[in-house]
Amino acid sequence: MKTAYQQFISREAKLADLPALVALEQACFNSDRLSKRSFKNWLQSTQRIFMVLEQGAEIVGYGLVIMRKGTRLARLYSLAISPTMRGLGLGKQLLIELEKQSVAVGKLFLRLEVEKTNQRAIGLYESMGYKVFGDYKNYYENNNDALRMQKAIRHYSNFSRLPTYPWYQQSTDFTCGPAALMMAMNSIAPKVTMDQKTELDLWREATTIFMMAGHGGCHPLGLALAAEKRGFSAKVFINQALPLFTAGVRSEHKKQTLELVEAQFAAQALQKNIQIETAEFELSVLQNALENGGRVVSLISTYRMDGYKVPHWVTITAMDQDCLYFHDPSVPDGHVMGFDCQHIPLAKEDFIKLSSYGKNKLRTALVLYPNFLNTSLD
């Protein structure tokens, strides 16, 4: 696909462009440069949009957008225009092309980070509708700060401002539940500490002991009990009766142990008057909870995101007419940063599929409220 901008031609980048891309990177940036190896990896990746801008046989610009699989989020990873070609509007034209192609593959939002001192770039992004929604301290190699910016590239989204919401990266492969719960609790009561000690304490309280071949994952009732212990009111939604996580457990001993743990959780939840709704529930129930001051922690399947059928807890941060947004405590690979794991947008119909786990299509979520009878949250 080629588009002419006067004497300039945009096209998809190819492996033969590698030497020219490296040379352009050297000319455009003094630090935080993409390496030859990084360029090669992205040229061969399927999770990207990679365009170059040519004048004759010379590459005078490039734009790289990377995509989070299974979500509607794309990220402008790098945009470069040759110093000799600046001031001609080429950056804007290339960005428009990248946005169009991102929309064509179903993305709703494009995010980026930009150095706070780079007024030229900030001016470009602001002129194209990008809004600042956060910042990173000491983000670059020179220790300069970065602004986080975002634009709804599909016009139907009405969500104009993302809420302030804490984010925490899980420190182990098996503590997504505690990490998600800490984010929800801290958003209600900032005095709740988000650290590894609290994360592991929560996991010990909420784990099901076994999960597939590794450490136990957290049960919705276990997480609710852990939240109630810390002064929060909790309500649990589960679309099926217990037991929940025994389908993939082959060992009869492990299966019996899981069922015993679940029975203990259920008895404790009854004793603590934790509300449990065992029925199919609509996404509107969770949206209503958010609109009334609740915080939502939801179980999803990671299959659509990373190809693995693993149950994973996330924190739903907001909803609008068309989209749902969530904080993911897991940073999946070296190309994705914490920035990309916050307020991840999904079309609501996509989340319905994402939140269904296993052959039995388990759907479960936990709603937290401040317990107004407990002053320890103040």
What topology does this entry show?
Elements: E1 3-5, E2 8-12, H1 18-28, H2 36-44, E3 48-55, E4 58-67, E5 73-81, H3 90-104, E6 109-115, H4 119-127, E7 131-136, E8 146-152, H5 176-188, H6 196-206, E9 210-211, E10 214-215, H7 220-229, E11 232-238, H8 252-271, E12 275-278, H9 283-291, E13 295-301, H10 303-306, E14 311-319, E15 323-327, E16 344-347, H11 348-354, E17 364-370
Parallel strand pairs: 5-6, 11-12
Antiparallel strand pairs: 1-2, 2-3, 3-4, 4-5, 6-8, 7-8, 9-10, 11-17, 13-14, 13-17, 14-15, 15-16
Could you tell me the number of beta strands? Answer: 17
Q: Tell me the radius of gyration.
A: 23 Å
Estimate the strand proportion: 25-35%
Instruction: Label the CATH architecture of the largest domain.
Output: Alpha-Beta Complex
Indicate the overall shape.
elongated
Distance between the termini: 58 Å
- State mean pLDDT (0 to 100 scale): 87
Organism: Paraglaciecola aquimarina
Pfam families: Acetyltransf_1 (PF00583), DUF3335 (PF11814)
InterPro entries: Acyl_CoA_acyltransferase (IPR016181), Bact_Acetyltransf (IPR050832), DUF3335 (IPR021770), GNAT_dom (IPR000182)
Domain N-acetyltransferase: 8-154
